[in-house]
Amino acid sequence: MKLKQKLALGAGLMALSLSSAWAQGLEGKVIGFSQIGSESGWRAAETSVTKAEAEKRGVDLKFADAQQKQENQIKAIRGFIAQGVDAILVAPVVATGWEEVLTEAKEANIPVVLLDRGIEAPQELYLTSVASDQVKEGRVAAEWLVGAVGEATCNVVELQGTVGSSPAINRKQGFEDGIAGHANITISRSQTGDFTRAKGKEVMEGFLKAEGGGAGICAVYAHNDDMAVGAIQAIKDAGLKPGTDIKVVSIDAVPDIFAAMVAGEANATVELTPNMAGPAFDALDAYLNAGTVPEKFIITESKLYTPADDPQGEYDRRKGLGY
Amino acid sequence: MTRPKVDLHPTTRPPARHKRPLWAMFARPQVVALAMVLAVNWLLFPGFFSVTWQDGRLFGSLIDVLNRGAPVAILAIGMTAVIATKGVDLSVGAVMAICGAVGAQMVNSGQPAGLAVAVALAVGLLCGLWNGILVTLLQIQPIIATLVLMVAGRGLAQLVTEGSIVTFSDPVLIFIGTGSVLGLPTPVVITLVLLILATLIVRRSALGLLIEAVGVNRSAAHFAGISALSLLLVVYAFSGLCAALAGLIAAGDIRGADANNAGLWLELDAILAVVIGGTSLMGGRFSIPMSVLGAVIIQAMNTGILISGFSPEFNLVVKSGVIILILILQSPLSARLLHRRARRSPKAEDAA
Fold first, then answer.
1. I need a surface site. Which of A100, A273, B186, B284 has the fewest CB within 10 A?
2. How far is A85 from chain B (nearest CA, A)?
3. Cβ-based neighbours of B205, under 8 Å, separated by 6 or more
């Protein structure tokens, strides 16, 4: 009897939530998405996750690939406005030059959500922006290292992203913030690996030679996983065990770093989620159906993954996303 | 109308311009520049010259310089021939990406590695031929003709890899990138073999002379009976082949084909290596070994910057400063000044 009651209650609740979802969801809504292009694996994953999230919600997604050109994005947005879409998602390729086209969207009463990058324009021109906090990503990586080494002395070498790029600046800053106050952890060397595997490997080779064949290095912190994958190969070439002799911590959570974790060669990665569209759709759902104006900046979670988090499963789950 | 034929294998070789003693080979500004860069590296990092034997291979910063410099050195070998004909090949970086991608996709689809390497090299050759056809048959200026493939090629490579880094675990491709032969990294051995073969072919046959003739004055070479058309086709195809080799090395090195970044901007490093090596962009006289030396100088500098501990914001500034220094060192002006000092007879030099 009790069980039956519970089941009935559960079914009722489910029906209620389902019906509210039907009534208030984005089912049948037309949403335009102007994507930058497919310059990186992460970008490709973002595109496929956005399409999957749209399908899950029954959204009719109009996808436009700008091939790295702002003029194409502006054209696409104008096209969306002319079609009378319900909302527009934009991953802006550059920060400036958006006032005019966003004003047109605003006059047409079409809410615009920015994905993963900010712009320099009056805030009232867009509904909200969904992005990760790059400083926090660096801090999460640092906090993992602080916990992993405890009181032991630890010399860290850092593989920076492209000089002057905002992820390189912010992830460096965040990591430095995270190790501040822990005098046992110091960054002994820091060089740019341009976010690529080849450069990550080359720079790590240099670090290993300069630090007594790697004896003086306790951990490597890479601003992205690709450089970490390159560094892992360099560490192996030097006759050391990555993950054991030298700890490897990086940011992005692409499939190949999980493959390295399965092999015991990487210790931790901080996820830059490709699912920017999920929170964007949620915000649009609340706005279009209930009129709730979301916060101006929605920050995605910077989740830490270690070998304890089923790396094989994560690898399989991500492999199909187009990374 | 019959064109006069030229004997491709002259039995009498032209007289040597100068009989120079062996040591004079080393008294060149490039050698001085390399010695200087290495000395600075040694000052920055005293262990720079230490080479040890580890896991059946040589291990040390000096070996890194040769190993990391290998792709640019190979590109420079092909680029030297192109530049000697008064051309330039901007597409080599993109061709690297295409060929690496083709090789990776083929081994991943279960093809034997030998076939994958052969097809990748053939694709490089075809890319080079395409450039050659644009330059010769369509008479497009080389810088524009090869710009087409430089821009489109990276897109082609991205199409082949479908936008992601294609990783592989094929032992043959990995051996090309990271293996070792007699203790030396495979890329270094490949570079050495290519260097010796290319130098022998251009210097032991009339080919080098023909290339220089076309580079100095194409119409004069034409009227002398040299078929500039087929020669240019061969030269651009050779450059494409070199790029394919470099592309396979770059892919094997990271065990993956990275269409976005493989060979990115390396065409500029290759051109720089050729220029540092003393080959004029105006065509004519060229030296393949000196271009390879140029590539080694560039890489020695890169490695030096990496181990120096400078903050990365200085990388490009330091690099350009050193390059300006090298170019000044080998400029005609400083050569004249040095000669004056040595001979103390400026008039003889001016008359020459």
1. A100
2. 29
3. B8, B9
Q: Taking CB atoms and an 8 Å limit, are B165 and A41 in contact across chains?
A: yes
Chain A residue numbers with beta carbons less than 8 Å from the beta carbon of B266 are: none
B119: phi then psi, degrees, rounded to nearest 5:
-65, -40
> Are A28-132+274-292 and A134-272+307-319 in the same CATH fold?
yes
Identify the residue among B158, B161, B249, B261 best suited for mutation to test binding to A, counting A beta carbons within 10 A and taking the highest: B261
From chain B, the residues in CB contact with A222 under 8 A are none
Q: Which residue from B60, B163, B165 is facing A209, i.e. has the nearest CB?
A: B60
Provide the 3-class DSSP secondary structure of residue A222: strand
Distance (Å, whole) CA A193 – CA A223 = 9
Share of chain A above pLDDT 90, in %: 79
User: Quick check: A10 pLDDT over 60?
Assistant: no
Of 3.40.50.2300, 3.30.70.20, 1.10.645.10, 3.40.50.410, the CATH number of A28-132+274-292 is 3.40.50.2300
Domain layout of chain B by residue ranges: 56-335
* B253 touches A: beta carbon within 8 Å: yes
Q: Cβ–Cβ of B309/A189 closer than 8 Å?
A: yes
| pLDDT one digit per residue (tens) for chain B, 352 residues | 455 555 555 555 555 555 566 666 677 888 989 999 999 999 988 889 989 888 888 999 999 999 999 999 999 999 999 999 999 999 999 999 999 999 999 999 999 999 999 999 999 999 999 999 999 999 999 999 999 999 999 999 989 988 788 999 999 999 999 999 999 999 999 999 999 999 999 999 999 999 999 999 999 999 999 999 999 999 999 999 999 999 999 999 999 999 989 999 999 999 999 999 999 999 999 999 999 999 999 999 999 998 888 888 888 898 899 889 888 887 888 878 877 776 664 444 444 3
Q: Give the start-to-end residue ranges of the domains of chain A.
A: 28-132+274-292, 134-272+307-319
Name every residue in A having a CB less than 8 A away from some CB of B. 38-41, 44, 160, 163-164, 189-192, 194, 196-199, 201-203, 205-207, 209-210, 226, 229-230, 233, 237-239, 256, 322-323
Q: pTM of the entire structure?
A: 0.85
What confidence category does residue A13 fall into, taking pLDDT thresholds of 50, 70 and 90?
very low
The CATH number, out of the four listed (3.30.70.3270, 3.40.50.920, 3.20.20.450, 3.40.50.2300), of the domain defined by the range A134-272+307-319: 3.40.50.2300
Q: Is B279 on the interface with A (CB under 8 A)?
A: no
Distance CA B195, CA B250 (A): 18
